[in-house]
Amino acid sequence: MKTKVDQNFDNLSERFRKNIYNTPKGQIRLNVLWRDLIEQIPAIESGGLSILDAGAGQGNFALQLAQKNHQLTLCDLSIKMLQDAQALFAEHKLEQGVHFIHSPVQELSEHIETQYDIVLFHAVLEWLAEPEETLRQLLTFIKPGGYLSLMFYSRSGLIYQNLTNGNFDNILNNSLSGEGKSLTPTNPQDPQDVYQWLNNFKLNTVLKSGVRVFYDGISRERRKQINEEQLFELEKRFSRIEPYCSLARYVHVLCQKQGK
Ligand SMILES: C[S@@+](CC[C@H](N)C(=O)[O-])C[C@H]1O[C@@H](n2cnc3c(N)ncnc32)[C@H](O)[C@@H]1O
After folding, report:
1. How does pLDDT run across 23-82, given as a tens digit for each residue?
2. How far is CA 191 from the centre of its chain?
3. Cα separation of 90 and 15, whole Å?
4. What is the number of other CB atoms lying within 10 angstroms of the CB of residue 142?
5. From the alpha carbon of 13, which atom of ligand 1 is closest?
6. Separation between Cα atoms, residue 62 and residue 66, nearest integer Å
7. How remote is the CA of residue 129 from the centroid of ligand 1, in Å?
8. CB-based burial of residue 70 (10 Å sphere; 0-12 exposed, 13-18 middle, 19+ buried)?
């Protein structure tokens, strides 16, 4: 069934914090994103870039960027998530000069006129009713020659997990979307569709990485025994290698806008 509205995280903020960031899953995500950005945009390490984090949530990734002295703007549909982000920045004494905008991406032009060196859109696409159109609107905020860092929840990864877990009914009934109250996305995206949109938007794809290539397939019992350093190392190693990349839970695509 088609998602009718974008998912506001006001009622999911507490579970999101517990379930994602304080876990190896969150650490894998941060490791892969950070590695990808540094590799392609060395100025990420030295600071001074203007960065829009669209659907920034609780600001965990943006905080790392603020620690490198970039100029940050965070926007989110959820006031609760945005307040959590503000509190996180305040806790680290990094809120000075940061713009927090309570707005859906679709209405951002009512708040900002500027364009950014980098626009982040991490784990938002799969919660939207109109992902392609919303992405198209977001691109107007990237400077010519600037970057889009897009990470989305992969429908292919979800199908593979349901198959290997023996959840055949979910596949046969095409029941792969979460309900509004769960942390399973309401609109998982087929990577091939997203690549096609990016192509149509005339963005140059610079790199693609899988995020959580195999971790979710390890049983809960076994997870308690694994060496986390090895886990992080191997997740990074296989993130760019096919077929592993395409079966990951998320795909990170870094694209560059033409021009300059
Ligand atoms: C899964 S969270 C991801 C948060 C953050 N980007 C991260 O990676 O941790 C998705 C976020 O997108 C926000 N969101 C959903 N639809 C949106 C929209 N149309 N405009 C802006 N934010 C939106 C939600 O409120 C939520 O905070």
Report:
1. 899 999 999 999 999 999 999 999 999 999 999 999 999 999 999 999 999 999 999 999
2. 14
3. 21
4. 21
5. 27
6. 6
7. 13
8. buried
* pTM higher than 0.90: yes
Work out whether strand 250-256 and strand 71-76 pair parallel, antiparallel, or are unpaired: unpaired
Tokens of 94: 């990094």
Contact 50, 120 (CB under 8 A): no
| pLDDT computed for residue 235 by the predictor | 97
Compute, in angstroms, the gap from residue 82 CA to the centroid of ligand 1. 10
How many angstroms does the Cα of residue 124 sit away from the middle of ligand 1? Answer: 5
Q: For residue 143, how far is the Cα from the chain centroid?
A: 20
Which pLDDT does position 104 carry in this prediction?
97
Name the 3-class secondary structure at 131: helix
Q: From the CA of 147, how far away is ligand 1's center (Å)?
A: 19
Residue nearest to atom 10 of ligand 1 (CA): 124
Query: CA 200 → CA 22, 127, 138, distances in Å?
Result: 37, 22, 15
Residues 6+ apart with CB under 8 A from 48: 69, 70, 71
pLDDT tier, 22 (very low <50, low <70, confident <90, very high otherwise): confident
Nearest CA-CA partner of 91 in 71, 66, 73, 56: 66
Distance, in Å, from the CA atom of 43 to the CA atom of 69, rounded to the nearest integer, reads: 11
pLDDT of residue 177: 80
Q: Which amino acid is present at 37?
A: L
- The Cα 201–Cα 52 span in angstroms is 19
Residues within a 6 A CB radius of ligand 1: 6-9, 55-57, 60-61, 75-78, 81, 104-106, 122-124, 127-128
Chain segment 218-254, per-residue pLDDT in tens: 999 999 999 999 999 999 999 999 999 989 999 999 9
